[in-house]
């Protein structure tokens, strides 16, 4: 037993309890809102601490592992948590009651993500995923006075519960055939016994498992929830779903495909390629007619899931490095975008693209952040998003030598990128060139949020211009996966 | 007749299928929720029988976690459904159309 490894999880749970305790001493909702600042400060300290430590080992009989991959994603989740917490503090003005509960629930969802990054056993995988998902049901339906939020909550509830059922049934089938729930043992058994890989029940189980995880990524065919839920949920929740929930799907798929079921994953490139291509097409094409910003970002997040799946389909070391890099760039881009949307939509009462009119004069910093986020998401140099997409395309093209269908996949992806330029630049046009702006009063934002926006801009630029640091850490994190390296 | 692993698995697959069908074709949101619970219980049955026939307790343990999580899910889920019902006075999924293109 090696409980010291769980320090980051303990710290986040402790912080959640601290927030509950602080709530007792605050008597008006404005004070309660300020607790968010305390929470984001503490979370920032935890996040900074996570960059200083390099623990390795396993706990709970190998069910919980702390390796470079887990640590990389824990840092990712903590950083996401800090930014989302700052945005929540700004957004919490809208809540009539239950301000500090909103922070607490976010911290619990964060705990689920941290545990999921370390899951090396189906039991921990399931419990961590559900800790996150059940908390998200509440977070999505948090604005009880709004029908749209409740409706999004119910839709998320039904679809996420269905994906959980697929996941657990898949786990049951895999467990039944292989006789183990431990990833390491599963990997050993699949390696030792080649008949096992061809077993139909095992294949079905793995497929169901993949569906359950693909739901978190918002990949085709389990992507239907994303636009509705993104639109209806409170904006900080949407941001958390977009960055955090997607990354949970990524880390679990990486661990499953690279470590536990590597022999099995080798035969599934075709499936992954088809799913990736359809996800990109669906996300890019459906985003075109959208006028609601949050809904548009929902479709864009589906397209991003497609690009990530391309990295999985490459089945190579460079593919998984590209996935991690893409996620890092995605974090800053998407959180920056949602931070701006949260404030603007709050003012305008709706998250329409039209609400952005005149933003360049109302608040230049927010306009710049949103523009950079859109440019980065569209994949234009020199920002983070460009380099992420470039690396993913490169890793897929490398595989094209072995199997020609990879070239078609890149063709589909480039088509998706070109289509996406239209709707991303629509937003930028609204920010800078839209004439029909009724309201030109400046938008004041709190200084923590201003620093956060600067951090997002800095992150996008830094990742795009100096990718070496993150690339090196991503290579170290994915070194333990069994994926073949081409170089 | 000797009841073997296959029988349990077939029953659990049938249960899972009925639950899934319920989720997909029923229009009342509470009945959909019952379908979801049935899917989870089908997975539980499968886990328990695999556990028994594999001579390994992990499956049984997993079922405890699934039951606990399902209980939490029901608590949160029913609260959400009731809140929505109060707003809309209807439990039919066709009327959940606020969020559309």
What are its keywords?
heterodimer, A: 487 residues, mainly alpha, 2 strands, B: Helix Hairpins
What do you see in this structure?
The complex is a heterodimer of chains A (487) and B (101). Chain A is mainly alpha-helical and 487 residues long. Chain A has helices at residues 7-24, 29-50, 68-91, 99-118, 122-140, 147-178, 183-192, 194-198, 200-217, 225-232, 235-260, 262-265, 269-287, 293-314, 317-348, 359-362, 364-378, 384-399, 405-433, 447-465, 468-478; strands at 57-59, 64-66. In chain A, strands 1-2 form a two-stranded antiparallel ribbon. Chain A starts with 6 loop residues before the first helix and ends in a 9-residue tail after the last helix. Chain B has 101 residues and is mostly helical. Chain B contains three helices and no strands. In chain B, helix 1 runs antiparallel to helix 2. The longest helix of chain B has 31 residues, at 58-88. Chain B is elongated.
SSE diagram, text form:
The complex is a heterodimer of chains A (487) and B (101).
Chain A: H1 7-24, H2 29-50, E1 57-59, E2 64-66, H3 68-91, H4 99-118, H5 122-140, H6 147-178, H7 183-192, H8 194-198, H9 200-217, H10 225-232, H11 235-260, H12 262-265, H13 269-287, H14 293-314, H15 317-348, H16 359-362, H17 364-378, H18 384-399, H19 405-433, H20 447-465, H21 468-478
Antiparallel strand pairs in A: 1-2
Helix pairs in contact in A: 1-2, 1-4, 2-3, 3-4, 3-11, 3-15, 3-21, 4-5, 4-11, 5-6, 5-11, 6-9, 6-10, 9-11, 10-11, 10-14, 11-14, 11-15, 13-14, 13-19, 14-15, 14-18, 14-19, 15-17, 15-18, 15-20, 15-21, 17-19, 17-20, 18-19, 18-20
Chain B: H1 5-25, H2 29-54, H3 58-88
Hey, which two chains have the biggest interface? A-B, 41 and 41 residues
| Estimated share of beta-strand residues of chain B | under 5%
What are the low-pLDDT stretches of chain A, counting only 5+ consecutive residues below 50?
none
| Total count of domains of chain B | 1
Please trace the helix and strand order of chain B, writing H or E for each element. HHH
Q: Which percent range fits the helix content of chain A?
A: over 70%
Backbone CA Rg of chain A: 21 Å
Query: What's the arrangement of strands in the largest beta sheet of chain A?
Result: 1-2
Q: What is the distance, rounded to the nearest whole angstrom, between the alpha carbons of the first and last residues of chain A?
A: 39 Å
Shape of chain A: globular
Number of H- or I-type helical stretches of chain B:
3
Please compute the radius of gyration of chain B using only Cα atoms. Answer: 17 Å
Biggest sheet descriptor of chain B: none
Subunit arrangement of the protein: heterodimer
């Amino acid at each position: 037993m090696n409980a010291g490894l769980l320090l980051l999880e303990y710290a986040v749970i402790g912080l959640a309890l601290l927030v509950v305790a602080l709530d007792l001493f605050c008597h008006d909702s404005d004070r309660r809102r300020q607790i968010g600042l305390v929470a984001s400060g503490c979370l920032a300290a935890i996040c900074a601490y996570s960059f200083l430590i390099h623990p390795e080992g396993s706990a709970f009989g190998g069910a919980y592992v702390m390796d470079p991959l887990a640590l990389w994603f824990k840092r990712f989740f903590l950083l996401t948590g800090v930014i989302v917490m700052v945005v929540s503090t700004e957004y919490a003005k809208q809540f009539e009651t239950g301000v500090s509960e909103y922070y607490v629930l976010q911290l619990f969802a964060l705990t689920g993500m941290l545990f999921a990054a370390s899951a090396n056993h189906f039991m921990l995988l399931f419990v961590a995923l559900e800790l996150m998902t059940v908390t998200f049901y509440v977070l999505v339906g948090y604005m009880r006075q709004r029908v749209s939020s409740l409706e999004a909550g119910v839709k998320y509830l039904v679809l996420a519960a269905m994906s959980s059922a697929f996941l657990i049934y898949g786990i049951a089938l895999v467990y039944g055939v292989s006789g183990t729930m431990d990833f390491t043992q599963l990997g050993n058994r699949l390696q030792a016994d080649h008949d096992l890989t061809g077993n139909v029940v095992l294949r079905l189980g793995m497929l169901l498992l993949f569906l359950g995880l693909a739901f978190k990524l918002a990949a085709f065919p389990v992507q239907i929830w994303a636009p509705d839920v993104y639109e209806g949920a409170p904006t900080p929740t949407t941001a958390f779903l977009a960055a955090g929930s997607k990354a949970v799907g990524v880390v679990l798929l990486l661990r499953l495909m690279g470590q536990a079921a590597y022999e099995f994953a080798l035969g599934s490139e075709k499936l992954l390629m088809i799913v990736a291509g359809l996800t990109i097409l669906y996300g890019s094409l459906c985003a075109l007619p959208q006028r609601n910003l949050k809904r548009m970002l929902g479709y864009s997040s589906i397209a991003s899931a497609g690009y990530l799946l391309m990295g999985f389909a490459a089945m190579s070391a460079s593919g998984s490095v590209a996935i991690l890099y893409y996620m890092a760039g995605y974090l800053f881009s998407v959180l920056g975008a949602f931070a701006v949307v949260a404030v603007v939509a709050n003012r305008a009462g709706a998250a329409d693209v039209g609400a952005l009119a005149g933003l360049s004069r109302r608040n230049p910093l927010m306009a710049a952040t949103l523009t950079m986020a859109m440019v980065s998401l569209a994949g234009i140099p020199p920002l983070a998003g460009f380099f992420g997409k470039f690396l993913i395309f490169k890793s897929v093209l490398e595989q094209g030598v072995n199997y020609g269908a990879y070239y078609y996949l890149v063709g589909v992806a480039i088509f998706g990128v070109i289509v996406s330029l239209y709707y991303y630049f629509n937003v930028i046009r609204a920010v800078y060139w839209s004439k029909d702006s009724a309201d030109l009063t400046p938008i004041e934002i709190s200084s923590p949020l201003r620093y956060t926006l600067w951090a997002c801009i800095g992150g996008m630029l830094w990742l795009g211009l100096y990718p070496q640091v993150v690339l090196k850490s991503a290579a170290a994190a994915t070194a333990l996966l069994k994926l073949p390296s081409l170089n | 007749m000797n009841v073997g692993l296959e029988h349990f698995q077939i029953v659990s697959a049938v249960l899972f299928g009925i639950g899934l069908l319920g989720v997909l074709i029923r229009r009342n949101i509470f009945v959909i929720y019952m379908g979801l619970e049935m899917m989870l219980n089908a997975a539980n049955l499968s886990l328990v029988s695999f556990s028994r026939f594999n001579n390994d307790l992990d499956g049984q343990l997993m079922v405890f976690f699934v039951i606990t999580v399902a209980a939490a899910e029901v608590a949160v889920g029913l609260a959400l459904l009731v809140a929505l019902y109060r707003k809309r006075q209807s439990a039919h999924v066709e009327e959940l159309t606020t969020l559309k293109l």
